[in-house]
Specification:
Blueprint: H1 6-9, H2 25-35, E1 41-42, H3 55-66, H4 79-93, E2 102-105, H5 107-119, E3 125-130, H6 136-141, E4 146-151, H7 162-167, E5 173-179, H8 191-204, E6 207-211, H9 232-235, E7 236-241, E8 254-257, H10 260-273, H11 279-291, H12 295-313, E9 321-323, E10 330-334, H13 342-353, E11 355-356, E12 358-359, E13 370-374, H14 379-398
Parallel strand pairs: 1-11, 3-4, 3-5, 5-6, 6-7
Antiparallel strand pairs: 2-8, 7-8, 9-10, 10-13, 12-13
Length: 399
């Protein structure tokens, strides 16, 4: 039987790799082994596996369920939640939006997919900055556009060369996707870079899509945002979620925020895509934004503590290099000097040391030798995992 061409566009296939690799293969194997009782340390996913959602949020969902809030809801998202998201977004970015500019989704991933569907088609081009989160290429290729990749280089300190990005713009470019801070690198953009990028988008009628799921767990003064640039409100779409900031990864609450026409089209798509979230989940999300305001700061503090621990533990790793921009939930290793790719490194580390890390093969060109370490377990487990990583590198290098 025949399947649509979409089924090929949504498959990760890194053309920079000599073989097709599932970017989640190592993680999935680790989860399977852990479920069988093996002592696996999971550092391969971006969530605090040792933490739970705050009680005030959980209790809100329970009370909402008991009150009968389990029927159909507004497909755009409950108006009260959308108003709270708008207010939260405005505090983070300095913009001035209201509930009508917000569309609620089943997590940020769902929001990114929906945005791609209403903006892009087969005659278009979309620009991604690599390394990028592993789902980006499939998400933005799904409507059929050509995906153009701008690779950050080691020679630039793994920071974006904005001139390379601007030079990639053509008369077919319809959108540029940025992630601040970047996953997996943790890198940021400067005000000068964002001024140039926003101006180029305004001048060429290009959408700027910002994946901002991490901005509320980093120091606000340390990160420049495009929202302050004149003209940005007409071309900027911001995607966010409560997953990282409020320890709600499994609740699947995200959003897209942008100009009025965008919200109208996203609402129409929601009718035929997911038909709205569960009301009791949206009530819990509203409570999170109203009564759990200290959680993002707590997560930020925990990430900083764990990052410091990893940096202090992973010293003298020759020939492997530690890459850490000081933001987000991850630290990277560049394993190319070992003469093996990231997938081989991660799979052998899991097999020999019971530590699961994520190879960045699926993060676009240039990710083939990068390994992502999640700051997602407590200090003792993280220290032990770092010790095992060091042992593995030492043993592998000697052999």
């Amino acid at each position: 039987m025949k399947f649509s061409s979409l089924t090929q566009r949504i498959v990760n296939d890194d053309s920079d790799s000599p073989r097709k690799i599932d970017p989640w293969a190592v993680h999935n194997l680790a989860v399977q082994r852990a479920s069988q009782g093996e002592p696996i340390t999971l550092l391969s996913i971006g969530q605090e596996t040792n933490e739970t959602t705050p009680d005030v949020i959980v209790n809100s969902a329970i009370e909402s369920l008991q009150a009968g809030r389990h029927h159909y809801a507004d497909v755009r998202g409950d108006e009260k939640l959308r108003a709270e998201v708008a207010a939260y977004h405005n505090r983070l970015t300095g913009q001035s939006y209201n509930a009508d500019n917000v569309t609620i989704y089943v997590g940020a991933q769902n929001a990114l997919f929906a945005v791609a569907q209403v903006l892009l088609e087969s005659s278009d081009e979309v620009i991604l900055v690599a390394p990028f989160y592993t789902t980006y290429e499939a998400t933005f290729a799904a409507p059929g556009p050509k995906v153009v990749t701008v690779q950050v280089e080691a020679s630039d300190g793994y920071q974006l060369n904005e001139d390379a990005l601007l030079n990639a713009i053509s008369d077919k470019t319809r959108a540029i996707v940025l992630n601040a801070p970047n996953n997996p690198l943790g890198s940021r953009y400067t005000e000068e870079q964002l001024n140039k990028i926003v101006q180029a988008c305004v001048d060429n009628n290009i959408w700027l899509i910002l994946d901002a799921v991490y901005i509320d767990i980093v120091d606000a003064d340390s990160i420049a945002l495009p929202h302050h640039v004149p003209g940005s409100k007409d071309i900027l779409i911001t995607v966010g979620s409560l997953s990282k900031s409020h320890r709600m990864t499994g609740w699947r609450v995200g959003w897209a925020i942008g100009p009025d026409p965008l919200s109208e089209h996203l609402g129409n798509l929601s009718v035929c895509m997911h038909y709205g979230l569960a009301p009791f989940v949206m009530d819990a999300a509203t409570t999170a934004l109203q009564h759990s305001n200290d959680t993002p700061a707590l997560v930020r503090s925990v990430m900083l503590e764990r990052r410091t621990l990893v940096r202090n533990s992973l010293v003298n790793l020759d020939p492997v290099r530690v890459l850490d921009a000081g933001q987000g939930m991850f630290v990277l290793l560049d394993v190319e000097p070992m003469g093996i790719d990231a997938y081989t490194f991660a799979m052998e580390l899991l097999e020999k040391k019971d530590v699961s890390v994520l190879p960045c093969d699926g993060f676009g060109p240039g990710g083939r030798f990068l390994v992502r370490i999640g700051l997602c377990v407590d200090g003792q487990q993280l220290t032990q995992a770092c010790d095992r990583i060091k042992q593995f590198i030492a043993e592998k290098t000697k052999s």
